[in-house]
Sequence to fold (550 residues):
Amino acid sequence: MDNKDSEAEIHPLKTEEVKAQENHENFVERRIIKSSGLSRLSRWRTAAFFISLFLCLIIVFAFSFIIPCPERPVSERTWFQYYNNAVPYQFLVIEDVNEDKVQDVLFAFKSSNGSSSSNVSCLDEGLPSPCAFVAAVSGTNGSVLWESPAAEELQWLQCGMQRLGTAGAPGCLVVEKPLALTAISLWTGEVLWRQSRDFGANYTVLTPLSVIPDVDNDGVQDLIIFITKEGQVKTFIHSGKTGGQIGRGSSLSVDGSARYISLNLRSSSYFLFYTENSLYAYSLEDLCSAVMGMEVKFPNLQPNSLWEKHIDPATHRSSLLRFQDIRYLAKVPGQSQDNILVVSSEMATLINTKDLLTVWTLNVSRALSEPLLGYYKPDVRGIVLESEIGPNRKKVMIVESGSGAVQWELKLNSRAGSPGPATLPTADHRSAFLMWGDYQEPGNETRHGSPLQKLYLFHPSYTNVLLELRNSTDQVIAFTAALFERSRHACYVLLQGPQPSQGPGPVSLMKRKLKEDVLESRVVWLRRAAGDSEQRVQERLYRMRFQSRD
Fold:
């Protein structure tokens, strides 16, 4: 011990060097141990990364090649459905029945039996034979999805109801005569409920039927129904869940020959009833309060002060909206709320519902069909009007809704009962217009007898051209056009067969893809333009794309 102490006293620096060297060696050893641990951790992280990457690649490979993707339904370009010894009704409805994201077709006909594939008869629903069938066929290939014997005699068919029955599922309403109201499932055609009423003879149901908010608080929207009889209009409310009547019926101070439209004005809802010379306005809350026998308020609705000011509280006539010989009343969307288009025997008038002032008037003689909306200019809404200009002659006009300016017009030969026009939205924010008639080229002699039924296509990219798509002598009972898939597959549907007065006969339902007819169409020049050829016009319109509007 003494030697060590003396050594330290003699060589103090040497002792410090030994301690420093020992500390350095310990530090290096600890660092080597720590580096070794970090290295092992880094290797684990690398291994975990590559394992995760490998698993992701396996999953991608499985979904891409091993697990099959759901097959997209392939829509046939054209399909037909035939019925023998039947009479078609003037209804065509487009809805997705089987939820395959392709629109399907619903229609109605009177017969003793359904198609051979469905094997259903009137007796299955306890109805006398023949009876009215409602049928749904696939939009992809025309196969029968379901057929339902629905009524003894069909008066009205309306689909698009989002919630009906105890399950609150999509459905259709069938109005039968004598009056019975039947709800059927959109998906299966099964009867959800049926309610019968005895109003005796000489009554009429005003259509379309209107859906209103839930009045009886059962969680399903309800229906308001208007009946005209003996010069009066009566109001009834029925449950959308069970079809049972809610409250009592009430009578309106409206002439029995009235028709009506429903109008939404921001936070207000009104029903406008119109006869040839008068227009009446009732708020939804007033109608429901009269039926229920107590005041009814809807949280999201409130009276419009301007409209209430100009509605006579006793007669409900509008003091500002006075017209003669009203043919049609239609809603035209405005910037913030709907406006009203009044079509009389000699003129069309657009009314601004914000201030009840006239926006524009246009001479229109004897309107033949309800006004139709479309787009002649990109994103500028237009109105299609058809008017009679002589025996078997009509004029088709496209009118700008904001100004009333006539953007395009055409004169056609037209037979009585000819289908109305249709529009389809195109990707250039305009519309393709479909119309029926027989274009008579200048210089040709006037045809005698009933004109042919020809279907024409017009698009504003060629203001001087019509495409003749079809030339038919068969009786067209109903016609519609729609995009059968979102933003694609533009088609038109024809229902042909005998008139009710002619008795039963062959009935055909046809869907045809529009582009197929464009390639085979005949180009009709309204006026020649330099540089245009028939092939160029057909090819450009064939390449035209369609786009759904939300």
Q: What stands out?
A: Residues 368-550 form one domain. The first strand starts at residue 78 and ends at 95. The radius of gyration is 36 Å.
